[in-house]
Amino acid sequence: MSLFSVFYFLLSIALFIIALPLLILLSFKKKYRESIPARFFLFRNPPFQHLDALWFHVCSLGEARALKPLLQKFSSQEVCISTITHTGHAEAKKYDAEVRYLPYEMHLPFWIHREKVLVVLEAEFWYLLFRVANARGAKVILLNARISDKSVDKYLKFAWFYKKLLEKVEIIYVQSEVDKNRFLALGAKNIEVIGNIKLAGEIKKTKSYVKPQKSELIVAGSTHPDEEDAVLKAFIAYKKHMPHAKLVVVPRHPERFASVYEVMQKYAGEHSLTLEKFSLTQDFGSDLILVDMMGELNNIYAVSDVAILGGAFREDVGGHNPLEPAYFGCKIITGKHFFHQKELFKYVHHVQYVEPDEIAAALKQTKELPPSMVEETIDLEPVVQKIKEYMK
């Protein structure tokens, strides 16, 4: 290891010691009960058993799903997948692959063995992951790489560090020309623009539900705290003009099902609306429906007229994937803070971008707009061929 790598390793240990009380506390929360013990204490998280395998590293649910079209090209290859979040881990387990949580960096010199290729998605920039994997013989590829508008200044302030981090990367496949220029400013080399690989993903439903007759079905998908309040206020105002409209709320994180239901109960009581949990009825008979089940969002999009896409009405989330509601022909309303999904929104037409207090007006405007749609595709073949070349 270089002197800087030794310093970085020692710093990671110091930070771990400082954060230890918080990590122990968070380990008792449902959201982190599996991921924190695995990542920071290696609990039930041994190294990959397969050597000389193809290793993909992703952060969470969206990136894990985006792997599917790539993994189909390597069905005969031993594949390993590491993740950061619980939802990403659960999604990765659906593949024929060896799945682990990526350990905290101080563990990586002892945890990483020998893989031939490491493919890292989006913005998962871990210095010791790149350094140690490369030292053990892996070719490192960045795929779907991006630097958001919100993050670019931070990256440029530490350009000296990211130049060191990117030294061991063989090739970077970025989402756009803007991303390419930002990586060049960080000192990166061998950069190719291929677009967003999420455009290559298969979008489908897993169940078929019956759309309520003579009703407009509005789904608020992947919502975060405070967004449900804004959507419910807008829906109450809109329902005065469209009394047969129904609202389906699908929170982004399952640990929030109970708290979101309480918020919906408050609005239902104040405005004499009916309310149901989708897990109990699996229909759309009430005015308000909470989807308290995982894996149902595409099935709901398939029967919805309008999708209010969450994650972009707050400044700290960055939006969510618009391809799925667009694929099913929903009229999309979202917020203005979609910086993590900016590249995908370029390909989706007829979207309304509004502030939280403008959602009600946007709902009325949907009457004048055509359904949202996607017109772009992506060719993954150059990526597949490069990985195969490195796997030889």
Automatic annotation (TrEMBL):
<comment type="similarity">
    <text>Belongs to the glycosyltransferase group 1 family.</text>
</comment>
<comment type="function">
    <text>Involved in lipopolysaccharide (LPS) biosynthesis. Catalyzes the transfer of 3-deoxy-D-manno-octulosonate (Kdo) residue(s) from CMP-Kdo to lipid IV(A), the tetraacyldisaccharide-1,4'-bisphosphate precursor of lipid A.</text>
</comment>
<feature type="transmembrane region" description="Helical">
    <location>
        <begin position="6"/>
        <end position="26"/>
    </location>
</feature>
<keyword id="KW-1003">Cell membrane</keyword>
<keyword id="KW-1133">Transmembrane helix</keyword>
<dbReference type="InterPro" id="IPR007507">
    <property type="entry name" value="Glycos_transf_N"/>
</dbReference>
<protein>
    <recommendedName>
        <fullName>3-deoxy-D-manno-octulosonic acid transferase</fullName>
        <ecNumber>2.4.99.12</ecNumber>
    </recommendedName>
</protein>
<dbReference type="GO" id="GO:0009244">
    <property type="term" value="P:lipopolysaccharide core region biosynthetic process"/>
</dbReference>
<comment type="pathway">
    <text>Bacterial outer membrane biogenesis; LPS core biosynthesis.</text>
</comment>
<feature type="site" description="Transition state stabilizer">
    <location>
        <position position="198"/>
    </location>
</feature>
<feature type="active site" description="Proton acceptor">
    <location>
        <position position="63"/>
    </location>
</feature>
<dbReference type="InterPro" id="IPR038107">
    <property type="entry name" value="Glycos_transf_N_sf"/>
</dbReference>
<dbReference type="GO" id="GO:0043842">
    <property type="term" value="F:Kdo transferase activity"/>
</dbReference>
<keyword id="KW-0812">Transmembrane</keyword>
<dbReference type="GO" id="GO:0009245">
    <property type="term" value="P:lipid A biosynthetic process"/>
</dbReference>
<feature type="site" description="Transition state stabilizer">
    <location>
        <position position="122"/>
    </location>
</feature>
<feature type="domain" description="3-deoxy-D-manno-octulosonic-acid transferase N-terminal">
    <location>
        <begin position="36"/>
        <end position="199"/>
    </location>
</feature>
<keyword id="KW-0448">Lipopolysaccharide biosynthesis</keyword>
<dbReference type="InterPro" id="IPR039901">
    <property type="entry name" value="Kdotransferase"/>
</dbReference>
<dbReference type="GO" id="GO:0005886">
    <property type="term" value="C:plasma membrane"/>
</dbReference>
<keyword id="KW-0808">Transferase</keyword>
<keyword id="KW-0472">Membrane</keyword>
<dbReference type="Pfam" id="PF04413">
    <property type="entry name" value="Glycos_transf_N"/>
</dbReference>
